[in-house]
Amino acid sequence: MRLKEKWREKAGAKWLAGSIIAGMLLLSATPSSAQHKKKKVNKSTSVDNTAEPDKLLYLRAAEDIKHGRHEVGRLNMQTLINTYPDSEYLAKAKLAIADSFYKEGGTANTTQAIQAYQDFSVFFPMLPEAAYAQLQVAMAHFREMEKPDRDRTQALEAEDAFQTFLQKYPNDPLALKAEQYLREVQEVLAEGDYRIGYFYYTTRGDKRAAASRLAALVNRYPLYSKADHALWMLGTIWEGTERKDLAAPYYARIVREYPLSPLVPGAKDRLKALKAPVPQPDPKAVA
């Protein structure tokens, strides 16, 4: 009896072990239904939610500005500045506000842009973008410039801003652009002076007033496209006075500094008539 019971117990144990092994094999051979289900994304750990809130605010505001929603973008940038004063995006936000005003355009917005760029330069003078901000101040004034015979305020502001840029950042990659625009600004300013001087010289016959205006012009703006003509008028003005000797330096400058001018032959003749030396052309002016 006991032998039969022991045999039954052994047989039952073997059957149970076999069933367990068979079940495990079946499970390993059959793909889990969970494996076929799409993995759910935990929104609480998605990229948008794990990113810093100041970064998200900056990116969304930048996107608004990019698509022309300037007021909304600037409002969000300002919210970032007020809410996260220690954010690594603080400087970028300030510059983005300035750029937004500049891009939107119009006199009021351009004025706001100038102030915003100046603020950036004050708060972040050591950042590489400070040079760009200074140039943008100049470009904003340049945009508002009027014609030579109109108000000179914006032209003078632009000249000062470009010169400030070149003094502070002479080796910056943007320096060449600043030099080119400064040249355009000074051409406008010089043209305004030239027109006034020419008016006094020809119409009013006030040679003294003409000489004052023209002398300031040729000394301040030697690259002006009509500087040689201004020098000629100065020469003739002084030649018509008792101080004829003061005419020679102006004729000499035409020969020396503007050797390609059509006035050079006449200037040489006047120098000879005044018994003054005729200078050689400046090699830099010829090149």
Automatic annotation (TrEMBL):
Keywords per UniProt: Cell outer membrane, Membrane, Signal
Signal found in the keyword field: yes
Gene3D superfamilies registered for this protein in UniProt: Tetratricopeptide repeat domain
Domain Outer membrane lipoprotein BamD-like: 52-235
InterPro entries listed in its UniProt record: BamD, BamD-like, TPR-like_helical_dom_sf
Keyword Iron: no
NCBIfam families xrefs: OM_YfiO (TIGR03302)
Protein name: Outer membrane protein assembly factor BamD
